[in-house]
Design goal:
3 strands; Alpha-Beta Plaits; 42% helix; alpha+beta; three-stranded antiparallel beta sheet
Length: 101
């Protein structure tokens, strides 16, 4: 199911034509969950909030979420890249437990 950036009452037109997709995932999350369950819970909650806000701020449509992964559609490729850049700026590997950086 697609989530409108503004909610169901103010749904906008879905991207059409040539559409750009953003697929995200936290690298090594399975191992981190096994080793640092409580810390990962807090880190993923923060990650999800930042990424969801960034996707919606750039007119993206989240069409699937699985664990810590997001799948979103955008009208243009630059719009699809902005949430990832924004997420990287607001979250660092230090946010995630078990990171060496």
């Amino acid at each position: 199911m697609l989530e409108s950036p503004k909610g169901p009452a103010e749904a906008r037109t879905l991207p059409t034509g040539t559409v750009a997709f953003l697929f995200t995932d936290i690298e090594g999350s399975t191992e981190r969950w096994e080793s640092h369950r409580a810390a990962m819970s807090a880190a993923v909650e923060q990650h999800d909030a930042v990424l969801q806000q960034a996707i919606q701020a750039h007119d993206g449509y989240i069409f699937k979420r699985m664990g810590d992964a997001f799948c979103a559609a955008f009208q243009t490729a630059p719009e699809a890249l902005r949430p990832r850049t924004k997420r990287s700026a607001r979250l660092s590997k230090k946010t995630l437990p078990g990171s060496a950086d």
